[in-house]
Amino acid sequence: MSTDLTAAASLGLASAGPAPREAAATAIEPGTPAFRRARLALFLAGFSTFSLLYAVQPLLPSFTEEFGVGASQASLALSLATGFLAFSILCAGAVSEAVGRRGLMFASMAGGALLHLGSALAPNWHAILVLRALEGFVLGGVPAVAMAYLAEEIHPRALGATMGLYVGGTAFGGMMGRLGMGALTEFASWRAAMGVLGLLDLAAAVGFLLLLPPSRNFARRRGVNAAYHLGAWAGHLKNRGLPLLFLTGFLALGVFVGTFNYLTFRLSAAPFSLSQGQISLVFAVFLSGVVASSAAGSLADRFGRGPVLTAGVLIMAAGLGLTLLPALPGLIAGVVGVTVGFFVAHAVASGWVGRMAAGAKGHAASLYLLAYYLGSSCLGSAGGLFWTHGGWPAVVAFNAGLLALALVAAGLLWHRERRAG
């Protein structure tokens, strides 16, 4: 979600480049015009990618009304995009070794914006789903490559701050994509709202291309060594701890996306009967999650990753329970709890992968992100079946079961951490 790229940053999705001294000698220095241009360009990349990806979430009730589909089918507009994004991330990093970083990121941003415009003009529901799936696949080129560009081109002493601005762009884009869609649909149709966002992000792609300095530390490689990549992924799956972290990301994002997907339906129905614009304001709670993810790293360093990861899952569960309250303030408090708990759990799990992986950390990162987005895609849509047949209590029960599995995984990881300590 809004810290999807926090995972990539902490996991180290950079690929092999020049030796550290050589790279530092040609790196973009902080304070220079090139440095300011690079920071702004990467902010635009993060904003564009995640505003496009998650803009449809507040529009799900509109899809059910116009196309006569159920809640689970409506959620496919998001789930297909995140699912195809997952597989795209898995291979885009390797492809960028042969075609280059800057060009691939621009193509991903521009292609995603054009496909978003196509979705706004699509004549029927199936055309929207096809275009959204293609949009997710195309957008995978940005998160898979952006961190590698930053690690290769930015001077080490400014890398952390630049990463932070990029991740801030993803957080801002994810939130504004949701808020903007809800606000625009108060005055225009959802098609017009999607069209405006598509044009805005197409302009962001052009700005990105004009601003981002060309790579100076990237060495293009011919071909893709499939055997090497397959061997690296297989090696990580044999690690006893890493699959538990992959499972945690899968379950946590599945619960998080599922909660927000069907919360829009609950808030638009009686007794709340909120408008699209009012519902979109709920996504402002993402700001609490950004703060929580920043604090989670410090807490994990102080108390250990296992306890903080477990606490994040428990906070999600407590917040989920509060969403059953009939009063709107109590429900919003529950949404804040789910958001804070998710960001804590995700921040700890994503950072732990990089520390646990023995070599080929970028491949471990791609596996985590694959599981992470598949959780959004598969579990986010599965929750719609529970909404259709049992309403919000059934959605809460389903998500509670998923969190119980996440709690078991967190407990096992905590046990491994204690034994290793």
Task: Characterise this structure.
The chain is mostly helical and 421 residues long. It has a single domain (4-212, 238-420), classed as MFS general substrate transporter like domains (Growth Hormone, Chain: A, Up-down Bundle), CATH 1.20.1250. It has 18 helices and no strands. The chain has helices at residues 4-11, 20-26, 33-54, 60-67, 71-74, 76-99, 101-121, 125-139, 141-153, 156-184, 190-211, 226-237, 242-268, 276-280, 286-303, 305-322, 328-356, 361-420. Helix 1 runs parallel beside helix 17, helix 3 (33-54) runs parallel beside helix 10 (156-184) and helix 13 (242-268) packs antiparallel against helix 17. The radius of gyration is 20 Å and the shape is globular. Mean pLDDT is 87; it is low at 5-21. It is a multi-pass membrane protein. Residues 34-418 form the Major facilitator superfamily (MFS) profile domain.
**CATH fourth-tier homologous superfamily:** MFS general substrate transporter like domains
Provide the low-confidence segments as ranges: 5-21
Give the strand tally: 0
Gyration radius, in Å: 20 Å
Please, how many helices? 18
Give me the CATH fold name. Answer: Growth Hormone, Chain: A
Q: What string, H for helix and E for strand, traces the elements in order?
A: HHHHHHHHHHHHHHHHHH
Strand content: under 5%
Distance between the termini: 32 Å
The biggest beta sheet, please? none
**Total separate domains:** 1
Arithmetic mean pLDDT: 87
How does the overall form come out from the CA principal axes?
globular
Kindly provide the name of the CATH class: Mainly Alpha
